[in-house]
Amino acid sequence: MRPPARGGARLLSCAGLAAALLLPAALPARAAPFSGLPTADGTKGQELPGMPSALDPEAEQVACTPASRRQAEKQDWSRQRLDLDRLHRHSTGTGVTVALIDTGVAPDAAGLGGRVTAQGAAGDDCVGHGTFLAGLIAGTGGDSPALAGVAPGAKILALRGTDGRGEAGAGLVAEAVREATAARAGVIAVTVALPRRDAELTRAVAAARRAGAVVVAAATPDPPSRGGTDEIPSRTYWPAGEPGVLSVADMLPSGARPDGSLPTGGVDLAAPGAGVVSGGPRGAGHYLGAGASVATAYAAGAAAAVRAARPDDSAAAVTRRLAATAYPADIPQLDPYAAVTTVLGESGSPVGTDRGSDPVTLRDTSAADRATSRATLFVLLGTAAVLAVLWAAFALPRARARGWRPAGEGGAGNE
Fold this sequence. Notes:
alpha/beta, Rossmann fold, 11 strands, globular, disordered C terminus
């Protein structure tokens, strides 16, 4: 009976090898999970209120975003992904001014005191979104240093690209870009996105680039709070589509875009944009934020860190460095630590690698992820069925030969 046993063992070994080869191919590529991942709905991880990107434009009376009564208990996944603790040993953005074009910034917000310049309406942030983003760019974290921004040594120039309720306008954004250029900001972060190109804004962005500013812009607006995005066609948003502007989209820990993200075409980078923690204009509590605006704030902070570490580099060189050192996934992922520390060769690629810096077309992977999950389930079930059949082919003949007695019984009487 030994030959059948050896044949059965060989069959099982082959089945196991086939399963080992099939399963990795079926499983989607995922980044290492982070414990305590915060989510926007608070059902998992840190339960914090959400930070809106705009207030209801149809409400007769506007109530500003209230102060959060909760504080984060731990560092969120985005800061771990960006390796900010290690980055800050090399650069904190000291000496660089980042112009933030959003809903304004509260100058005395926790973790930002003394480093925010805001004139007129830009110092009154009723929505709270601009202050939230400023914390991601240059916040110290206040009483929570683990929640510091990418460049906690940088300064913020607060500019309004929206009205008091957070509704963006091309004229407001163009004027803000001109003000940032006049103030000689090293980095200009436009965290709002417009659906149509505007000639005035195009000229303002071109002038900012000629003046030596790194211009970073959201690849899409943040998703609408009401209604779905399934019927919205893919399009280019502005000023992210302008030549030389670093276009940034949001990503999940897996590197995929979140469900409900607005579809778009070519972008340069993806950065964390879901379940991100930062402060607001009132109180010392924390909020959760999401969207391409959040990802853009992170990219702007990274640009400030690079400019501080490499003050002689041109704006174009900084932009190329951020793209060339991005993690080489299907959607290139922002890596501030690599951007500051990597040695680039003459071709502009990191030494010892063949990373490219050309923009890519960002694809919506949510449907593919769901299809892959279903395929994985089918592979698992199919593999289990194959193993069961092979086990039966191996075990049943041996059991029949023993007269269906358990293995080991009757062996002494037969000797």
